[in-house]
Amino acid sequence: QEYLRSHASVYQTPPAVTLSHVFYPAGDRLERPGAPHLLTELRAGKNFRQFGEPFWLGSVLEGYAEPQLAQVLGAEFAQKVIGLPLLEWSGPIDSHRGVHFVRIDERVPRAMPTFSELRSTLRSDWLASKREERLAAKVNELRDRYRVQIETDRR
Predict the structure, then answer these.
(1) N or C terminus: which one in the chain shows less Cβ crowding within 10 Å?
(2) Which residues fall within 8 angstroms of residue 32, CB to CB, at 6 or more apart?
(3) 69-92 burial, b if ≥16 CB within 10 A, otherwise e?
(4) The pTM is what?
(5) 115: confidence class by pLDDT, cuts 50, 70, 90
(6) How far apart are CA 123 and CA 119, in angstroms?
(7) 101-118 in b/e burial notation, b at 16+ Cβ within 10 A?
(8) 22 pairs with which residues across the strands?
(9) Sorting pLDDT into bands at 50, 70 and 90, what band is 17?
(10) Beta strands in 13-129 (DSSP E)
(11) What is the pLDDT of residues 129-155, one digit of tens each?
(12) Any idea what DSSP says for residue 145?
């Protein structure tokens, strides 16, 4: 537990969001009837599931942190989405896969998993840090035993 306290920032989960989205594949948005008015319709409370095309991860992405969003939809998309207001439809927002209209449904703050959840990971990390400490001590011990002298050419 002491190791966890001294390395807490490494084990915290990043902030995340749960979002709903309407997806249109790249180049598809402008060809859809009513697509230019979609944001207005979504903000008026229309069921978002009746719009757009199926997205391979679904219409609701639960608990995605910025790095996960960036991996799936691109860094620019992730940066924009993480900063969106809660419970308000926004868009269109471009991604690597197409165009999205997005609503942040929930924000999940950084969290610290419990010791029991991290037990095996902590044990592995603690053992690895001890191995590194022993290796560094041995290298220093060997370094102290020898003196390196560089002789210059005396011509």
Answers:
(1) C
(2) 24
(3) bbebbeeebbebbbebeeeebbbb
(4) 0.67
(5) confident
(6) 6
(7) bbbbeeeeeeeeeeeeeb
(8) 101
(9) very high
(10) 16-25, 60-65, 89-94, 98-108
(11) 889 889 888 888 888 888 878 888 776
(12) H
d(CA 84, CA 102): 9
Phi/psi of residue 84, nearest 5 degrees: -70, 155
- DSSP structure class, residue 60: E
Pull the structure tokens for residue 42. Answer: 């979504």
**What mean pLDDT, rounded, does the chain reach?**
87
68-71: list long-range contacts, CB under 8 Å, 24+ apart: 68/16, 69/17
Average pLDDT over residues 83-100: 94
59 token code pair: 């219409």
**Pair of tokens at residue 89:** 């439809």
Question: Reduced to 3 states, what is the DSSP secondary structure of residue 63?
Answer: strand
Alpha carbons within 13 A on the beta-carbon side of 31: 6
Amino acid identity for residue 48 in this structure: F
More confident residue, 138 or 103: 103
How does strand 98-108 pair with strand 60-65?
A: unpaired
- Are 38 and 50 in contact, with CB atoms under 8 Å apart? no
